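TEACHING EXERCISE
Course module: macromolecular assemblies
Task: Read the component lines below, then compare them to the predicted structure of the full complex.
Student: A.B.
Group: 4
Components provided:
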Amino acid sequence: MGISDVIPVPVAIDEEIEKWTIWGRPVADVWFTTTEKIHQIIQMGPIKNVLNWGRKNSLWFLMQPMGCCGVEMLVFGCPHYDCDRFGIIPRATPRQADVMIISGYITRKYLPAIKNLWEQMLEPKWCIAVGECAISGGPFYDSYNIIQNTSDFFPIDVYVPGCPPRPEQFIKGFVELQEKIKQRKDKRGY
Amino acid sequence: MLSAIQSAFPGSVLESRVESDRRLWITVDPKKLVEITQFLRDKKDFDHYSGAAGVDRINENLFEVVEILTSHGAHQVVVMMKVRVPRDKPSVRSLTGLYWNANWYEREIWEMYGINFEGHPELYPLLLPDELVGYWPWRKDFKGYPDTTTGERAIEQVGPDGYTEFKIMPHPEMIKAGVVPERPKYPTFREREEAEIKSDSEMIMHMGPQHAIVPGPFLLDLLIEGERVKKAFLDVGYIHKGIEKIMENRTYLQGIVYTDRMCYLASITNNEAYCGAVERLLNITPPERAQYIRVILAELSRIQSHLLGTGEFLTLLGAATYSPFQYMIIDREDLVYLMESITGARITHTFVRFGGVRNDLPDGFADKARPILKRMRERTEEYMDLLHSDPIYTRRMRGIGVLSPGDARRLGVSGPPLRASDTPYDMRREDPILVYPDLDFKVVTRKAGDAEARVEVRLEEILESIHIIEQCLDQIPEGPIQEKLPKKIKPEPGEAYYRVEDPRGEMGFYVISDGSEKPYRVKVRGPVYAYMQALPPLLEGAYVADVVAIAGSMDACTSEVDR
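Instructor-supplied answer key:
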């Protein structure tokens, strides 16, 4: 959409303004534009880095314990390991969470439910697979009820190996996710 | 006992074996099953239905159902009563009329083996997803095991109401074998709403599967009228892993790893139960030092489980802005550190071995443990004071979820909830194992039977456990920690049932050996299975606000229910 479509201006001024640019794009696009376009511009500009800095320092995760790793997740959220230092806080509902920790085996019966949980989470959101079961089925890999290829169903950014991993490894996983967000290399590309 | 049964029912006891003064194995005529059970219940004080197991005897073309009956303290005999039925059209008479809690055990056997139970009120799937019903996965000729393609066969579909659904197509092997399953379905939300809601003032509230009540998902559908729960429906099986099937396909030693992952807060006691059962098959006893080490670890594991269970429960109530939980976790870390110094793992230890333990205690363990235990005792007393003197807490907890002693026995619960209902039933006393008979401890009971009493029992048990550990540290002898065993463990054909006191109650392992390297059948009788089954009747008539308090005070662990 050009500027002259909206306000009839003398041709000379119109031409002059269309020569102006901001971040490599015509300034006219920026002035008369939609939310979508603003988003596109934010995507390319340094504003994004500022937003991501905020996001990476407030990763709230969904308390959704499923297996042994769920117990370590509880402990990770508590004072001894003190995840608050990194801005990581446990939440009980998916509507308030940014990160989903898949902390155990995904079964046939639970797959639809956990997918629903993932869809209920608001953007931006990230996913961490913790423990062998969530990565590849773990010791239950040949069971009739376990989904082995979790990454086909969820865009997993960080894999934390271990059976179960120690709470320190949870912290390391989160720090790696923060690094990914900072470098804008996460799967969903925020 | 055996002669009493034989004289009352001549000709219907087909086989019998007296293993010790606490175990009796009998095989009875399927036609007389209900009568014999009724005789045992009414005349011989067998008021505790402990569980049931299905066994697929494919070589003899038979199915076996093993009913485990015992008593709440009147005597210590465990009767393992077997019924054999032919493999085509198997059918057994249901015991739900005699024991209320036979319901879930029979449902599980039905969905896993396809054995029909005549007279069962609600025979629909318990643990399995809808698409697996009818394949009877625990039969020995089930084609879908091993299966590493489940995820690849998943098809995503968007349903008419806009939700994404997943369908998992049958295994190619099953299609080749031509298994055509019949599918009695679990009722969907909508069907349940249509069936149950009778008036405008009622509605169904869904809690779960993801909910902060326990570590693990389950679904609680509450039919509520105003603020009261009229009826509750429980759906479990969201993390059913098929551990019993997997253990049949691993060697005996590899099986220990799976017992850890069954209930990760009680992994040592699970190890203990499994290894104890296999030791009975091998006919060995561990050396005395190993027994002491096992007791120390089991009690440490009980303390940390109770701390986490109580703490988590308090967060559900929002108690004192989250803080007792935080303190309990800090205390628990000390204990976990202590256990880690012995076993090398934080929660999944895989430490107990057949005829001993893996490692000896590290140097200076007693000196390290004593101050931690002392501090633990002070802290526990502090928690008890804190909870006792908090008027908000007591008003919230007193008199809710009351289980009378009779009800608690009838529902089949064990462990702290049963002891809080004035029944001193503890496996460490009933079925003594290891060095427990030499140790001095008391079985903690309470009269009230409400949610507050359950928490009190747990906290006081922590003190008892500390007392036991301190005795063990004083008495522990020097010596070997492992019996000599061959590298490949092959027990003689036979079977054994062994039970221990889990932090949550009675945990039993039933292992059958056929003389090969792998167990023929492993059955787990877990305590939480019984708790969860008792939850719906317990919730009836409660306020919606109390549901979390009641369910949380049972300290459930879904992973062990689903296995």
